[in-house]
TrEMBL record:
Keywords associated with the record: Hydrolase
GO MF entry, a single one: hydrolase activity
Protein name per the record: Adenosylcobinamide amidohydrolase
InterPro entries: AdoCbi_amidolase (IPR002808), CbiZ (IPR052209)
Ranges in coiled-coil conformation: none
Keyword Iron: no
Pfam families according to UniProt: CbiZ
Length: 222
């Protein structure tokens, strides 16, 4: 198992690493390059009226409600927490784990015409590596994560409703890569490295599992 505790609730997913982590993310709450003790993926009701609070304040309120550490990375989604796809792989002392939730109501192809009609359905991904990465390697891991997500979407033959062409994500995807906040053991993690191989595989598999959950739910509700 990874050294990250998962709390899987119908309204949220929380990830609690055993040690303080360095995180690179596009998260709403504490995004960018940060140090953190927890990650939160919070579900919102896409049919409910817009929150009176700003997204950051909504997430902060949830962090306080759950008694999570102040240093928490927070994401929001309308996707069901039942869409969770997770995958973990080990190679010697190296562990890579990934957690994905998927909603496809906001699916797009990169370069699609911009609009102001975004709805809160998104693909949120958290990727954990148990060995410390340099800042540059974290950025490279985020690139690999994104490539893997796009590959999973293409494999699932999901189409953008805007252009009618193969989609590459949603308009509001949020991703995070985190690792121990320590002296870096990895300066890079490209596809030719063992770490790059594990990242690509676990994200692709976790995304595929999550997308299948989402597509099955959509088919059942038609």
């Amino acid at each position: 198992m990874s050294s990250v505790r998962l709390i899987h609730h119908p309204d949220y997913i929380a990830l609690l690493p055993a040690e303080r982590c360095k995180v690179l993310s596009s998260a709403v709450l504490n995004g960018g390059l940060q140090e953190a003790n927890a990650l939160l993926n919070m579900r919102v009701d896409k049919h409910a009226p817009l929150h009176c609070l700003a997204p950051e304040q909504t997430l902060l309120k949830k962090v306080e409600e759950l008694s999570l550490p102040a240093a928490t990375i927070g994401m929001m989604t309308a996707a069901s927490m039942q869409s969770l796809g997770q995958q973990i792989e080990h190679k010697d002392d190296l562990t890579v784990a990934c957690w994905v939730t998927s909603g496809l109501s906001n699916v797009r192809r990169v370069g699609d015409k911009a609009d102001d009609n975004a709805v809160p359905g998104t693909i949120n991904i958290c990727l954990y590596i148990n060995q410390a990465l340099s800042d540059a390697a974290l950025a490279e891991a985020l690139i690999l994560l994104t490539e893997s997500k796009v590959t999973a979407i293409r494999d699932a033959e999901i189409i953008s409703p805007v252009s009618g062409l193969p989609a590459s994500g949603t308009g509001t995807d949020s991703h995070a890569v985190f690792c121990p906040d320590a002296e870096p053991q990895h300066a890079y993690c490209g596809k030719h490295t063992t770490l790059g191989e594990l990242i690509g595989r676990v994200v692709l598999q976790a995304c595929s599992i999550s997308l299948n959950h989402c597509l099955r739910s959509l088919a059942e509700n038609e």
